Amino acid sequence: MITIRGARPEDAAELVRLRRLMFADMSGRDAPGDWERDAEEIARRQLSARVPVLGAFVVDGDPALGAPHLAACAVGRLEERLPAPGHPTGRFGFVFTVCTDVRYRGRGFARATTEALLDWFAAQGVTRVDLHATPDAERLYRSLGFAEHSLALSLDLSHRRADPA
To answer: What is the CATH number of the domain that holds 108?
Structure first.
């Protein structure tokens, strides 16, 4: 049986470690940097918030394998937009990290933590959950009911200067 729990603020560093592993798996290269410190601070702050906006569910790693660590996680954010006919609460979810440490893969942890996150979203009144799937994870997400719903377009604004008005 898989034991899942909600992440706590003290899990922030491990959530970021798993996020870094996810990015390394996706790109084929490790990319440490200042983003990790910032991500850890944001995760800690959002996990401490009185009104939850960050949902994170984890499986603890085996203590016999070293210092306390997480085996897997699924993390998402609650977004509040203007309500619409098909989404009267205006609450949407976005899953942005699902990762299992290589030592624990193949045990159903990604599915279990993702299902816990989806249950949390439902309890928050979310009517739609979005995510970006890698080819390796697409089968899992489709088995949970995810499907295409529109053509997603993105714009990178990281190099656009803000008008100091």
So the answer is: 3.40.630.30
27-38 per-position pLDDT tens digit: 999 999 999 999
pLDDT along the chain (165 residues), means of 10: 96 98 94 96 97 96 95 97 94 97 97 98 96 93 94 87 71
Question: Is the residue at 16 inside a domain?
Answer: yes
Q: Range of 135's domain?
A: 5-143
Q: Which of 1, 5, 3, 2 is nearest to 117 (CA)?
A: 5
Q: Which amino acid, one-letter code, is at 144?
A: L
65 lies in some domain: yes
Q: Are 54 and 43 in contact (CB under 8 A)?
A: yes
Within a domain: 102: yes
Helices H, strands E: what count in the chain? 4, 5
CB neighbourhood size of 74 (10 A):
30
- pTM, to two decimals: 0.92
Within 10 angstroms of residue 106's Cβ, the number of other Cβ atoms is 8
Domain count, the chain: 1
Task: Examine residue 154 and state whether it is found in any structural domain, yes or no.
Answer: no
For 25-58, b where at least 16 C-beta lie within 10 A, e where not — what string?
Answer: eeeeeeeeeeeeeebbeebbebbeeeeeebbbbb
